[in-house]
């Protein structure tokens, strides 16, 4: 580890003080480091290329944000949970020294997670693009009215939906909005992704699990506002007839793990409140 980056969530006051503690600890271990708030995106990107690890201080939302910043550089992420859930984090504020120490010693493994790429097409032209680690959601805007969707997979028409939204989720996102909408839970090692309607009305209400090479096209029909959202953070207002094309991103997000490969199931059951043996 020649240099370690630290990004913290400025909205969480404690995260800055922990970032300072980590820098002091790394200096004591003769490891160079830098620390910036997540809102300093350009500065973070400029420092990523020569970094060996990115430590993220925040909740899952912060980790999703950091994953998009780190994606072009293949830098593994080590999350320290400063939020409420922490599905994506590897450590807590009270044990980061032990776990980060294992990473510095090389006692970790790289977990690659599928990312999604979406492009918005209007009148045959690409208007914008998004990437997501959790999910891409095409759904209604401010008005409480359903949207009509036409779903194509690999160029073939599959079905039409009348629903509040369509979720396209990765295995990572299967524990997020998709889980709340009744979708299946998928371990992060899988390379599949799924399509799940939200509050479908007189149309298919089951999830479709697709292969990693699938190309999804979602066309929207409505006379009111609809919206495309990536990871619940970035959004764009859609127009009637817009098409959202979604596929697997060419790069995977990478996480540094020190727990065993079965950590996902233990963590999931713990977050759901089930007793452990």
Structural description of this entry:
The chain has 277 residues and is α+β, with helices and mostly antiparallel strands. The protein folds into two domains: 131 residues, Probable inorganic polyphosphate/atp-NAD kinase, domain 1 (Rossmann fold), CATH 3.40.50.10330; 133 residues, Tumour Suppressor Smad4, CATH 2.60.200.30. Helix content is 21%, strand content 38%. The chain is built from six helices and 18 strands. A six-stranded antiparallel beta sheet has the order 7-6-17-14-9-10, with no helix packed on it. It has a six-stranded antiparallel beta sheet with strand order 13-12-11-8-15-16, with no helix packed on it. It has a four-stranded parallel beta sheet with strand order 2-1-3-4, sandwiched between helices. Strand 1, helix 1 and strand 2 form a beta-alpha-beta unit. The longest helix has 16 residues. The two termini are 37 Å apart. The model has no long low-confidence stretch (mean pLDDT 93).
Keywords:
6 helices, alpha+beta, six-stranded antiparallel beta sheet, 277 residues, Tumour Suppressor Smad4, Rossmann fold
**Count of domain modules:** 2
Report the uncertain regions: none
Mean pLDDT value: 93
Oligomer: single chain
Which CATH architecture of the largest domain would you pick? Sandwich
The main β sheet shows up as: 6 strands, antiparallel
* First and last CA, distance: 37 Å
Q: Tell me the helix content.
A: 10-25%
CATH class categorisation of the largest domain: Mainly Beta
């Amino acid at each position: 580890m020649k240099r370690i980056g630290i990004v913290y969530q400025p909205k969480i006051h404690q995260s800055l003080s922990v970032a300072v503690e980590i820098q002091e600890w790394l200096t004591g271990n003769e490891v160079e480091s830098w620390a910036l708030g997540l809102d300093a995106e350009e500065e973070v990107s400029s420092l990523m290329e020569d970094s060996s690890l990115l430590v993220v201080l925040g909740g899952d939302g912060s980790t999703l944000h950091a994953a998009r910043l780190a994606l072009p550089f293949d830098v593994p992420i080590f999350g320290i949970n400063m939020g409420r859930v922490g599905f994506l984090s590897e450590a807590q504020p009270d044990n980061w020294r032990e776990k980060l120490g294992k990473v510095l010693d090389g006692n970790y493994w790289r977990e690659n997670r599928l990312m999604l790429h979406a492009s918005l097409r209007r009148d045959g032209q690409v208007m914008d693009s998004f990437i997501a680690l959790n999910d891409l959601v095409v759904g209604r805007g401010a008005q409480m009215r359903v949207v009509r969707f036409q779903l194509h997979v690999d160029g073939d028409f599959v079905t039409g939906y009348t629903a509040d939204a369509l979720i396209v989720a990765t295995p990572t996102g299967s524990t997020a909005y998709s889980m709340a909408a009744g979708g299946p839970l998928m371990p992060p090692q899988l390379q599949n992704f799924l399509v799940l309607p939200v509050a479908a009305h007189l149309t298919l209400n089951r999830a479709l699990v697709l292969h990693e090479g699938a190309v999804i096209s979602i066309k929207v029909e409505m006379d009111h506002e609809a919206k495309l959202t990536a990871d619940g953070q970035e959004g764009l207002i859609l127009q009637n007839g817009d098409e959202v094309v979604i596929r697997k991103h060419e790069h995977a997000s990478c996480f540094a793990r020190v727990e065993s490969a079965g950590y996902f199931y233990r963590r999931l059951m713990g977050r759901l409140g089930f007793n452990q043996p």
